[in-house]
Amino acid sequence: MMLVSATEMINKAHEGHYAIGAFNINNMEWIKAILLGCEAKKSPVILGVSEGAAKYMCGYKNAVDMVKNIMDFYNITVPVAIHLDHGSYEGAKKAIEAGFTSVMFDGSHYPIEENIEKSKELIELAHSKGISIECEVGGIGGEEDGVISSGEVADPAECKAVSDLGVDFLAAGIGNIHGKYPENWAGLNFDVLAEIQKVTEGKPLVLHGGSGIPQEMVKEAIVLGVSKVNINTECQLVFADATRKYIEDGKDLTNKGWDPRKLLKPGAEAIQKLVEDYVTDFLGSANKA
Ligand code: 13P
Questions:
Q1: Structural domain contains residue 23
Q2: Does 1 map to a domain?
């Protein structure tokens, strides 16, 4: 299978009232685990790459090539998009050039007029290359690669303005935050989500900060028009927990347990299991490939 734009899988999810997982990747272990998990469950998938992760993986081009080669090696048959997560104006252009099949332009920190102007230009560029594009209105709370936002709730009128530019899917802050949710989190603002879905006349919406949002809340968000859910922290946490357990159990000390292929295996297996469970129980995208 070749890498595909995310438009078709997301539009189908929106019509079918389920959502596609956008799991962030960091390295070969992450790519393998997420692809194998989605192949096992026959779920389409989006692999999210932040600008920081692209740098860590030695550039956009290497990220694209790694994903393509790993898909070939495992005969992956489910639709896969490689998507720039929270791209800057310059980063989006570079990722498009390097062969990404989907990009997000996060102009939420610009004044709305500038966000609209830059979004418009990048939407035209992405569509001229046949790739999908996501834009953002209203910040997502928490911290993502050094970009800190207070997690405002998006203004539906601004959402409509960006939606009308022809963006394929729209990220709008509704009280969601990146990273772990605090004990006293107020939850998602479903009234605003419903209003955004209404004024954008059924634009597929994106829920960032998926890690730690309870299953029932994710399902309610999908009913109200969310068709893409981003998950990053959750994969990092299960990887770290499984690796810590391996070391605390002393398994790195005997039987060549220090071999990196053995040392990184429990963490990678934990990511694969998380992805399999998440697409099945939270997103409903299993068997939709
Ligand atoms: P989490 O790290 O909270 O899952 O958020 C991921 C995300 O939204 C990436 O854009």
A1: yes
A2: no
Confidence of residue 1 (pLDDT cuts 50, 70, 90): confident
Total-model pTM: 0.96
Ligand 1 centroid from CA 22, angstroms:
9
pLDDT of residue 186: 85
Number of domains in the chain: 1
Judge whether 2 lies within some domain.
no
Which tens digits make up the pLDDT trace of 255-284? 999 999 999 999 999 999 999 999 999 999
> Measured between alpha carbons, how far is 266 from 261 in angstroms, rounded to an integer?
10
Nearest atom within ligand 1 for CA of residue 234: 4
- Using an 8 Å Cβ cutoff, are 86 and 108 in contact? no
CA of 55 to the centre of ligand 1 (A): 18
| Rg of the chain taking only CA atoms, in angstroms | 18
Active-site residue set: 85
Residues flanking ligand 1, CB < 6 Å? 24, 48, 85-86, 144, 178-179, 208-211, 230-234
Backbone angles phi, psi at 175, to 5 degrees: 90, 0
Scanning the structure block, which residue is given the tokens 């062969």? 99
- Domain coverage including residue 164: 7-282
Distance from C-alpha of 236 to C-alpha of 76, rounded to nearest angstrom: 23
CA of 211 to the centre of ligand 1 (A): 6
Say if residue 37 is exposed, middle or buried (CB neighbours under 10 Å; 0-12, 13-18, 19+).
buried
In this structure, is residue 289 part of a structural domain?
Answer: no
Cβ contacts of residue 17 below 8 Å, gap of 6+? 222, 223, 284
Take residue 142 and report the two structure tokens written for it.
Answer: 């928490």
- Give residue-wise pLDDT tens across range 232-251: 999 999 999 999 999 999 99
